[in-house]
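2024-03-11 09:14:02 INFO receiving multi-entity request
2024-03-11 09:14:02 INFO entity count = two
2024-03-11 09:14:03 INFO echoing inputs for audit
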Amino acid sequence: MAAPKPRVKVPKKASQGEVITIKTLISHPMESGQRKDKKTGELIPRKIINKFSCEFNGQVVFSCDLDPAVSANPYMEFNAKVNEPGTFKFTWVDDDGSVYETEKKITIE
Amino acid sequence: MTITRRQALGLTAGAAAFLTFAPRISFAATAETDAAIKAFTGGATPTEGTVSLDTPEIAENGNTVPVGVTVDSPMTEDSYVESVLILADGNPSPAVATFHFTAMSGAAEAKTRIRLAKTQNVIAVAKMNDGSTFMDTKEVKVTIGGCGG
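2024-03-11 09:21:47 INFO inference complete, emitting structure
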């Protein structure tokens, strides 16, 4: 299986104090642990992303605990208030302990 | 009004169907859902309002149902939404996701896509930083369930 690929949409520029919308998506099967293998009839073990967080200059802006009821390729849309230029850091944590990260910079105009 | 044999049969069948299915929808899942709400609010019963759920009335594919939640809050350091719990009472396990906001979120709004096994209620419970809780419930009709067997 291909490694999960995060995709994030953050505006490049914002005016001071503006509330921006951030959209994120990561390719991940989000195996719920409820599905059975069609050939063997055995349950496919659970493997989901259980935590997502977004930090701006080291401060947490938004985070989310995910349960198996979140769709495959989990999509998140949320807001952030930008008071200064900086970097958004996005982190996804997998059930197996792997961590997927990506960063986006924003400037103030 | 006289009831014909045909009508009587129809009524009985309808009532029987209602009795068979209704309790399963309302009881089986709600106990677990209530427990999840209680655990989240710390025993308090959330009031209606302030939080609003944005869900489609009919979801053709239960595998990806877009769900949005908005909480009416100024989102300042003194008054902001701490977290929002999303539950689906007809899923094998009602928990869907928990969003955690901070004053830096600017607006308490989030959207995601969820799985729904069948037609059921989606519930959002919001917790403010002062401890007050609010909830909203929306029914979503699901054509094809999304928990694949």
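2024-03-11 09:21:48 INFO post-check: The radius of gyration of chain A is 16 Å.
2024-03-11 09:21:48 INFO post-check: The mean pLDDT of chain A is 91.
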